[in-house]
Amino acid sequence: MNVPEHDLVARFDALSVRLEKAQDALGRVVFGQERVIEETLITILCGGHGLLVGTPGLAKTRLVNAIGTVLGMEAKRVQFTPDLMPSDILGTEVLDESPDGKRSFRFIEGPVFSQLLMADEINRASPRTQSALLEAMQERQVTVAGEVRKLPQPFHVLATQNPIEQEGTYPLPEAQLDRFLLQINVDQPSVDAEREMLRATTFTAQPQPDQVLGAEELMEAQELVRAMPVGDTLIDTVLKLVRTARPGGQFAEHLRWGPGPRASQAFSLALRARALLRGAPAPETEDLIALAQPILRHRIALSFAARAEGHDIDHLIDRMVEAAL
C-alpha cells in the first residue's frame, strides 16, 4: 500500500472516528461488554476470525448480529448441534432433471457463502463437522465434490462457544483453534450494566444498531491496518513473548504445547488494529499487554502437572508478558 505519509495519517484519523461510532453503536445494543466489543472489532479489522467463549445468555449471539449490521456485512447463522453435517454448512449438490429429460447436478450454497458466518455454539457439533470450516477459515474457499468454490469477500467467522466443562460439548481441535485470531472471553456484566440492560430490553422496544461502515469500506480499513507502522522494539518483544510461551522456553514445565507462527502474525495485526481503535498513530506496549491473553489463551495447553497445581492460563500468560518486557 504505497500511500504518502500525510495521506495515511489523514485516513487513519478519519477511520478512527468511524470506528468510534461503530463502538458506540454496538455499546447501545450490548451492555457492559466494552472489552468484548473492542476485541471483536479488532478481529474483524485484522481480517480474522473470532471465538467468543462464555456461558449462555451473555449476548454473544446479539453481538455478532449487531456486528453484521454495523459493518454492513451479509450475515448468516448456523446453530451447531450434534447431528449437524458438513454439507449443512458448506452446501451440497442436487440432481436436477430438465423438461427434456436431461439430468445435471446443481450446487446449492450453504450458509458459509456469506460475509459474516455466525457459528453458534460451535463446540456442540461433532469434530467432523467442526473441521468442515478449516479450509473456509484459512483459504477463503471450500471444496465440494472436487470443485473449489471461492467465498465472498470479506469473509469472517465469529463462533460462540460454551465453556468446555458443560455437558454435550466437544473440544475444538488445535488446528482449528489456531485459526481463530482471538479467543474473546465474555464475562458477566457489572451491576450497573445489567440494570441498564433491563431498562433497555424489558420496558421498551429493544434498540437496534445503525450501519456505520459498508463491506467495501471495511476491506479498505483492513488494508489500512496493514499499512500502520510497528516499531522494531515492539516486534522483538512479541517474538520474545511467543517463544517464551512454547515448550522449551522459560515456562516449559507448565506447558504441553504452545503457540506457532500464527500467534506472531496475530500480534502484528492486532496491535495495529487496537492502536487504530485508540486513535494512536502506532501501537505501543500497552496494546501488547491488553492483547496477550486473547491471542495466546487458545494457543496454549497446560501440562497435567500445571493443571494439578491449579495454574490458570490467563495468569500464566501475565507472567510470560512480565518476563518478555
Characterization of the model:
The chain has 14 helices and 11 strands. The chain is an alpha/beta fold and 325 residues long. The protein has a domain of 97 residues: Helicase, Ruva Protein, domain 3 (Orthogonal Bundle). The longest helix is centred in the N-terminal third of the chain and has 23 residues. It is globular, with a radius of gyration of 21 Å.
Which key features would you list for this structure?
14 helices; 325 residues; Helicase, Ruva Protein, domain 3; globular; two-stranded antiparallel sheet; 16% strand; alpha/beta; 46% helix; 11 strands; single chain; five-stranded parallel beta sheet
Summarize the structure.
This protein is α/β, with parallel strands linked by helices. The chain is built from 14 helices and eleven strands.
Task: Specify the CATH architecture of the domain at 229-325.
Answer: Orthogonal Bundle
Q: Helix segment count?
A: 14
Element-level helix/strand string: HHEHEHEEEHHEEEHEHHHEHHEHH
Q: What gyration radius follows from the Cα positions, in whole Å?
A: 21 Å
Contiguous runs where pLDDT drops below 50 for at least 5 residues: none
The name of the CATH superfamily of the domain at 229-325 reads Magnesium chelatase subunit I, C-Terminal domain
Give the overall shape, derived from the CA principal axes. Answer: globular
Structural class: alpha/beta
> Which CATH first-tier class of the domain at 229-325 would you pick?
Mainly Alpha
Described by strand count, sense and barrel closure, the largest sheet is: 5 strands, parallel
Determine the fraction of residues in helical runs and give it as a percent range: 40-55%
Lateral arrangement of strands in the main beta sheet: 2-5-8-1-9
As a percent range, the share of strand residues is 15-25%
Which fold does the CATH topology of the domain at 229-325 refer to?
Answer: Helicase, Ruva Protein, domain 3
* Total beta-strand segments: 11
Tell me, rounded to a whole number, the average pLDDT: 87
End-to-end separation in angstroms reads: 31 Å
